[in-house]
Amino acid sequence: MSAKQTSSEPTGTTKKFGKGERHIPHHTQKAKKFYPAEDESKPKKVRKSIRPTKTRSTLQPGVVLILLAGRFRGKRVILLKHLPQGVLLVTGPFKINGVPLRRVNSRYVIATSAKVELNGIDEKTVEKAGETGYFTREKKDSKVGEEAFFKQGEKPEKKKVASARASDQKAVDKAILTNIKREPHLLEYLRSSFSLRKGDRPHEMKW
Length: 207
Known about the structure:
Helix content is 24%, strand content 18%. It is α+β, with helices and mostly antiparallel strands. Strand 3 and strand 4 form a beta hairpin.
């Protein structure tokens, strides 16, 4: 009996529209009149294929870069390493131009012809700074209740750099500073900031 019942159920028809086909349900198979009040979240289909990042040939470790965006735009920094996240690990050094160890997108830098030797650099510290969780911020305990209300008018506390980050910065910059001092005019070049003026033609400049 069950086989007969399933065979007697109405089925829709398939119509061809050019090269494609479309299934049209039977008129007895009407759509539901009830719909949920809230839309059900469905995972978004990502059609883009993940491709490995292609690094420019000019972005080699030790090359002096010019930052084009961010807090330190216009500063000249030294490239240390390519990170697996598709970004660059750079340093000022901090003692020269105030740029600490930080990650930079390769799209927002200009590679120059100047290069600094990275002989004697602390490789362990560079590997440590290249890890994914190195630049994550520490979560602070949010103030609740009356204490937060009465401290609204107080001056905000200054950000304190972690002692581990400061020691890592000194360990990386120590060998780089000695190599910079050997080259004439390189210290002044890294200390100066880049800017364009009226009449400058960047496409004709030799970096």
